[in-house]
Amino acid sequence: MPSIDMVVMVPPSLSSLQLALLSSRPPPPSLGGEDEQAGMGDDLIVTALEEAVTAAASAAVAAADTPAPSRSPRDFLLMHERGVYTVGRILVRRSAQPSRSLSHALAFRSAHVRRLRAGIQHIRFGSALPLANWPDDLVASVGCDSTLEMPEPRAVRLALELLLAETRLERVLDAMVAQSVLALCKVCGNGWVESSEEDIRITLLVTCCLKTERVKLAMQCTTVPKPSRELVPCNVALYGTPRKFPTVKDTLWIRLRAPLEDQLRSATELILSDHNGNLHEGLTTNFFCGVPSSDGGITLQTAPMNSVLPGTLVEAVLSACAAVGVQCEQRFPRRQDSGMWAFAFLTSAGKLMQPVAQIDFRDGRFGGTSAESS
């Protein structure tokens, strides 16, 4: 499974530019006068970022020539400092013309942008160690204490504010997606471009290097099979309590959920629930169920979006329901009502949609019975 790892170090000059824009002193002579500062400054910033992306892609292609063991998305994220991330799919389309030209698009692009924006605004960056090297007691203390923030350098926050302003984050994301496709084409060769029926999975991390006080954008790109039209049922188990900060896709959660993953056993996914029996979300999925409505139809239920991580597919499900007239409520599915559910399913970026065949209520708070889902 061919893959490349791309690391973009945001140019340190961006922090200097941000300081000039925020302070009362005039901007550097190279930025021009005050009247042209706004537009020209934006052009300089985006150009600098796009050049950094291009250089990173070239380095990734060069590194791909050296044999190395492939990393899972989890291992890729843990080898970097703590940060916010998203996982998505680049849909690759090949023309039927003899030239077999290739086009691509990041699925649910706007949802990925919103996720990254929310995460960058929420957490503070500044860990000196790769997350894999964090001691367990540090992982636990940061995960349980909302007031414990990392010592983020001011230069990092200034650069992040520049990245979030205007549409720069979107433009940088587009540049990274485009360069990753070009890089994989070079690594995989013409055969992949002309005949492969694969898409590209991306894992994008926003973090910082404390030593250099620079923002770091790390992306892993891996070829993956196109989604299957066949829905494969799965078994899930009710186990574990909800996350403390569910709306942020923080790499710290990868370490925090490790003890829960040890409890998966025969289940595909664990569903987190509170002491009232409200089902929130899976470790890496969103949970939906169908409940009978007063008019004899079915109402889809999923947890409120301010209580879970809104997966990139949730918006698509809600839009599809609206289009066909199916009522959908952002209301916690209740364990006590599971006997009435007509069906249940999971959504995720990796496997899209999976029907739930069986729910194992093994959590001691609710007994140890199982329920079938048709």
Provide an overview of this structure:
It is a single chain. By secondary structure, the chain is an alpha+beta fold. Helix content is 33%, strand content 25%. The chain contains 11 helices and 14 strands. The strands form 2 sheets. Strands 6, 7, 8, 9, 10, 11, 12, 13 and 14 form a 9-stranded mixed β-sheet that branches. It has a 5-stranded antiparallel β-sheet with strand order 1-5-4-2-3. The longest helix has 28 residues, at 37-64. Mean pLDDT is 82; it is low at 21-40.
Summed up, the helix count is 11
Specify the overall morphology: globular
What distance separates the N and C termini?
35 Å
- Main sheet attributes: strand count, strand direction, barrel closure: 9 strands, mixed
Beta-strand residue percentage:
25-35%
Quote the average pLDDT. 82
In quaternary terms, these chains amount to single chain
Structural class: alpha+beta
Helix content: 25-40%
Q: Identify low-pLDDT runs.
A: 21-40
Q: How many β-strand runs?
A: 14
Q: Helix-strand pattern, N to C? A: EHHHEEHHHHHEEEHHEEEEHEEEE
What is the compact description of this entry?
This protein is α+β, with helices and mostly antiparallel strands. It is 33% helix and 25% strand. It has eleven helices and 14 strands.
Sequence-ordered SSE layout with sheet pairings:
Elements lengths: L2 E7 L3 H10 L14 H28 L8 H6 L5 E11 L7 E5 L2 H14 L13 H9 L9 H11 L3 H21 L1 H6 L2 E12 L4 E12 L8 E5 L13 H5 L1 H4 L7 E5 L5 E4 L3 E7 L5 E5 L11 H11 L3 E3 L12 E6 L3 E9 L9 E3 L2
Parallel strand pairs: 6-7, 6-13, 10-11
Antiparallel strand pairs: 1-5, 2-3, 2-4, 4-5, 7-8, 9-10, 9-12, 12-13, 13-14
Helix pairs in contact: 1-6, 2-7
